[in-house]
Amino acid sequence: MLRFKTALVGAVMAFGVVAVAFIAAAPDVGASGGTTLVRGWNNVAYLGDAKAPADALAGIAGQYSSVYRWDATTQSYALYAPGAPAFANTIAQVQPGDTLWLNYTQNTGSLVTATTTGTGGGGSSGPGVISVAASAFMPMDDLAIYEKSYNQIGPVGTDAASKRYFAPVSLPNGVSPTSMTANFVGSAATVDVRLDYTPLSNGASEASVFKIAEVLSSSGSSPQTAQAFTHTVDNSLNVYFLVVDLTGGSASQLNGVSIAYTQN
Fold this sequence. Notes:
By secondary structure, the protein is mostly beta strands. The chain has one helix at 53-56, and strands at 2-4, 12-14, 17-19, 34-45, 64-71, 76-80, 99-112, 127-132, 138-139, 146-149, 152-155, 164-168, 176-185, 191-199, 210-216, 224-227, 238-246, 253-262. The protein is built from one helix and 18 strands.
């Protein structure tokens, strides 16, 4: 468990080891499935057929150094890094709907993955799911005092600066979120998780932040699923993110969050 007093400013990684957290770009995903990549960490929704990682990412071969995927079962990150020893590469296959953290080594590029031929897996038709690890969340206030592990984040105390956290979300363009499932530690009204969006032009106006789905610890135990309001993702107009308010001090913590969607 790591304790922080200010916002994290980077990600430290080695083969098979993830340290601290990812700070990543939230790429634009076009209707054709092409995702714009920038140098550094990119959070990518994979929409192609199930393939070995080298094949799934063949379109950007030689342009990335490593790929990580959160494994909810083992509560750890799985890795694929070209050229890494076989024992270090723990991603055997990339599945439709997987959310990948991809370290892109070029200035800009594009990844096209929306070539799924089956249904129900998150391709050009059928549903999909993306997941967001708690380590992707950052505090709203730089004075927050909080603890973070691979897939858990929570405040140390009940001070106002340590209550709210954000994480970017990369949803495919044109899909409609159907539900959000949050895993958390907390009781009564101590955990509030929301999937929100706001226009690209908005800065700090809360009046221009709109809710898509919300999970409240006061409504039941973890994990809890909430249905989404009707909305079609438009990455040309909006940005999407998760917000969590943890008001119970060290007794309120967030684990992983998943978002289900359908293709339109």
